[in-house]
Design a protein that fits this description.
It is a single chain. With about 250 residues, the chain is α/β, with parallel strands linked by helices. The protein has a single domain, classed as NAD(P)-binding Rossmann-like Domain (Rossmann fold), CATH 3.40.50. Helix content is about 45%, strand content about 15%. The protein contains 9 helices and 7 strands. The longest helix is centred in the middle third of the chain and has 29 residues. The structure holds NADP nicotinamide-adenine-dinucleotide phosphate.
């Protein structure tokens, strides 16, 4: 007897899918999955590569707002949810002035509180279903404090450590967690950087690496290796030596 295996297409939600890494992930997932994305700006969405894609649903919403929970509930009710990618984040364009409290607060708001808020409903759903996959965008800058970038490094360190703890908490509940630690990726976030960005990586290649790792249910990935391995080594050096090297090589114009 001929047996036909029908595989239901996956449902993926990506916060911040209107540019950069989220946009590239959405496009790749949309080849065989139903994808939900969100972002604050509709204009950005309309100018993006994902605009009007038949398998991508856009929701104009801030991850910090209460409307965000309604959006996630609506998406889950209509499509269920297999993979949730906490990607939305903001960066810092120039060397951060430590007195620029407003900017520091914005970075912490979106990258820490926004991250926490964004994963809450998806995790609730995964726990009810007893299955799911949470993916979080951290950064190699989570590994140490970098001169000129205090709040971004600290915010990403929060995400990295939080996800590490969740990985252990959720493993026995059949919920996978993948922490993504990219180096420099060519996106609008890095466009205005006024410092060197060694081994800057193409965004579609970065998305490919993330999806491969998610498919294999890897817990921790970092890339490009030419940059991420030396950065991990640097992070493991004694503090004084690490600071000497950072002050010597990190320069802002
Ligand atoms: N690019 C890199 O080199 C790099 C390296 C390591 C880690 N990362 C991390 O990777 C993630 C994506 O970065 P990217 O380079 O792709 O940045 P990006 O091109 O600036 O994209 C950020 C996305 O997040 C959305 N977003 C920002 N704040 C939001 C909020 N409060 N609510 C909803 N959506 C929001 C943006 O849309 P709206 O502005 O319209 O809201 C946009 O769609 C970030 O978490 C970043 O920290 C990036």
């Amino acid at each position: 007897m001929l047996s036909i295996k029908i595989q239901k297409r996956k449902s993926v939600f990506i916060t911040g899918g209107t540019s950069g890494i989220g946009e590239a992930l959405a496009l790749k997932y949309a080849k065989d999955s139903l994808v939900g994305i969100c972002g604050r700006s509709r204009e950005k969405y309309e100018k993006s590569r994902v605009f009007n894609h038949p398998n991508i649903r856009f929701y104009q919403v801030d991850v910090l707002s209460s409307e965000y929970d309604d959006v996630i509930n609506q998406f889950i009710n209509q499509n269920s949810l297999n993979i949730f990618i906490a990607n939305a984040g903001v960066g810092v364009r120039k060397k951060q002035d430590f007195a620029d409290v407003k900017k520091h607060i914005e970075v912490v708001d979106v990258n820490v509180l926004g991250f926490l808020h964004s994963i809450s409903k998806p995790l609730e759903y995964f726990q009810q279903q007893k299955i799911g996959h949470l993916v979080g965008l951290c950064s190699l800058s989570a590994l140490m404090g970098l001169p000129g970038n205090p709040s971004y490094c600290a915010a990403k360190a929060f995400v990295k450590v939080y996800l590490e703890a969740l990985t252990m908490d959720l493993k026995h509940k059949n919920i996978a967690v993948t922490s993504v630690m990219p180096g420099y990726i060519d996106t609008p976030l890095t466009k205005g950087n006024n410092h060197k960005m060694p081994f800057l990586m193409n965004v579609d290649l970065a998305a490919e690496k993330i999806i491969k790792a998610v498919n294999k249910k890897k817990e921790y990935i970092h890339f490009p290796k030419t940059f991420s391995i030396p950065v991990h080594l640097l992070a493991s050096l004694p503090r004084g030596l690490r600071h000497f090297l950072l002050n010597k090589f990190v320069k802002y114009s």
